[in-house]
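Forwarding these from the shared drive since the link keeps breaking.
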Amino acid sequence: MSHLPLLIPIGVAIGILLGSVGGGGSLVAVPALVYIGDQSVRGAQAGALVVVIAASAIGLVTYLRRGDVRWRAGLAFGAAAGVSALAGSLLSRHLDPNVLLLAFAPVMVVGAVAMVGERGRAASTFRPWREGIFPGPVARVTLSGLGTGWLTGLFGVGGGFVVVPVLVLGLGFAMGEAVGTSLLVIIMGSLVALAERLGAGSIDWAVIAPFAVAAVVGVLVGSALGERLSIQALTRWFAVLVVATAAYTAIEALIALT
């Protein structure tokens, strides 16, 4: 339990990321649980999903109050992501954990770069489905969800670092509604991935429970920051943290493999 004093502030940081920019939780949680919490990669993946689900559920309530959750499109996206997350989880069982972490690093960087692009500052061009549902948008939402879910299952992450850029760049969401809707999608995809991983291993609740509580506290702070600070500024800090985490993860995985 000596590692908990280090993990608790990281848990708060994870919650702040989820509450303010709608992603990044597992980007930090998985490496933290592996390298600081002495968890196995698969145990860390399962634990990170628990943390992300708990924190995202609290954050979702806040964004619901603001009207920044696109329920219909989010549920369709999340359902597609849930199906492909299971396929990704099954594939991950047959791959070397360190190879997964190494492959995860460039994916993190791509997500970070996408988050700070020009589209992130643009207004929404997405037509809410309460105003009408058409085949084209349905197909785009479904295909985007399938691709995102596969990454969620394969790498054992909540997927917000992919969901938000996909919603903004691919589907035309404004940043605020992308963050709110991503929390709904994260919960759906993470529940599916967690169910598969619980069958393959146990969770160290003595570590994960306080870690999750810290993340819940952080998400409340992050939601408040999201109202008071520029979302673009928060997104830039998010991108810096993701790139730094990706570099550290890649180095550690390379050391383990060589």
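-- next protein --
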Amino acid sequence: MKFSDIPSHDSVKDRLRQMVISDRIPHALLLEGPAGIGKYALARAFAQYIHCENPDPNGDACGECQSCRLHESMNHIDTHFVFPVVKLNGMNTAPISDDFITEWREYLSDNFYADVEAWTNTFTKKNARPVTYVTESSSLLHKLAFTSHISRYKIVIWWLPERMNEEAANKLLKMIEEPFEDTVFIMVSDNPRGILPTIYSRVQRIELKRLPDQIIADNLSRQFAVNPADAMAIAHIAEGNMLTARKQLHRSKESEMFLDMFIRMMRLAYQRNIKDLRELTGEFSSLGRETQLRFFDYTLRLIRENFVYNFNVPQITYLNQSEAAFSSRFARFINERNVEKLLATFEKARTDIAANANAKIVSLDVAVKVILLLKS
């Protein structure tokens, strides 16, 4: 993994390069920020740059030396990987990362952006919560006691330290307080508040920001041949998270269903067609509760976008082609007189559905209120 493989985060890449060039690499570094922005890939690139035999001071690891080739296959002997795991049925002791290292390499070969949900789904034990057990810290302490083999530094890339249990965290604290001179910890966290405060206070922290919408849109267009306008709409919804953007892309059929349902609701409400609205609410109630919640999330976004559409500023409107075609005719019905009340109506409906209210009653109540609000 090289810096050039990772989109955005240029200032952070420069900062990491300077640490190596100036020979001021901290013994414990934490890359923190929201999920889906490439933090783990950046940690791997930093480790490869440290170990590279011919690094470019202004650029990247060479990609050709022995260390670089070993990093590409995740087999560098002086690089250790720590990640949360699951104790499977039949295991007598708590597992460590090495027990799943083959699965981890395979997972990362298909998942550039490490995702705890996707990693969890690789385990045969469903509904388990991956954690880092105290056995991990004990195993790591044993490995780090030996000197490095082919490089100056031993590097530990630790994914999601917030998922350590308390015993593991206390043992890690000792390693950070009394570090081996030739050891570098590179930690990657989605939720730094979950890290033991005594550990958090002893690491050098670099905060990474969300990815720009354009970066995400370009990636979707390039890798999945998505129309640029649709890609930008998805990127805006994803709020800087590449994982969310890709999941949203795979939910495109669901989004088409939601748009169709929203269009029918608005048209029937405008026509005051109570009979057909009742049928539509029955259709809505047949959806699973999670799908119902996603529908209301979708409608809230679409109402906001239709209100913004009226400003005639394409740069601030994020609609895919199908949504834009509908909004070109419908947006005028969402105005300053009713937009806040419409949003409040759908927000309350979402809250009620989340509280297990009757979906048919809730959706019919929404439909009746929309009838009144569209005429205001």
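The longest strand covers residues 183-189. The radius of gyration is 25 Å.

- D.
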